[in-house]
Amino acid sequence: MAKAPRCGPYICGIDAALDVVSGKWKGLILWELDAHHVRRFAELRRGLPGVSEKMLTQHLREMEEDGLVHREVYAEVPPRVEYSLTEHGRTLNQALGPLGAWGRERIRREGRELVDTSA
């Protein structure tokens, strides 16, 4: 089954923004690339516990198509591919900052735990 294109029409700006960050992993991919600037696929996968290879690949492709992520392929053996945020991706990540602050406050208020991704 083909996926419907993500191109509106939109009800409001939030609708358009959520269109490009929909999916469980996209916000976390933005966070990981913002924190580390450049990541290889395996590094991203290690930094996002629970993401499958298929979902990570799908989300990275969509984010590249939406102009949020830059994919750099190096002509080496074995091939090396690195991902980084575009300027457009950085502005989206900045816009999500207040949402992250709200989430951290929710974690604190409800006494929830954070996953340790430092390993």
Would you write up a description of this structure?
The protein is an alpha+beta fold. It has a domain at 13-95: Orthogonal Bundle (Arc Repressor Mutant, subunit A), CATH 1.10.10. The protein has 5 helices and 3 strands. It has helices at residues 13-21, 26-36, 41-47, 53-65, 87-110, and strands spanning 38-40, 69-74, 80-85. Strands 1-3-2 form a 3-stranded antiparallel beta sheet. Helix 2 packs across helix 5 (87-110). It is globular, with a radius of gyration of 15 Å. Residues 12-111 form the HTH hxlR-type domain. Keywords: DNA-binding, Transcription, Transcription regulation. InterPro entries: HTH_HxlR, WH-like_DNA-bd_sf, WH_DNA-bd_sf. It comes from Actinophytocola gossypii.
CATH C-level category of the domain at 13-95 = Mainly Alpha
Please name the CATH architecture of the domain at 13-95: Orthogonal Bundle
**Topology as H/E string?**
HHEHHEEH
The CATH superfamily of the domain at 13-95 appears as Winged helix-like DNA-binding domain superfamily/Winged helix DNA-binding domain
Proportion in helices: 40-55%
Q: Which geometry do the CA atoms define?
A: globular
| Rg, alpha carbons | 15 Å
Distance between the termini: 38 Å
Describe this protein with a few key phrases:
single chain, 119 residues, alpha+beta, Arc Repressor Mutant, subunit A, 54% helix, globular, transcription regulation, transcription
Topology (elements, then pairings):
Elements: H1 13-21, H2 26-36, E1 38-40, H3 41-47, H4 53-65, E2 69-74, E3 80-85, H5 87-110
Antiparallel strand pairs: 1-3, 2-3
Helix pairs in contact: 2-5
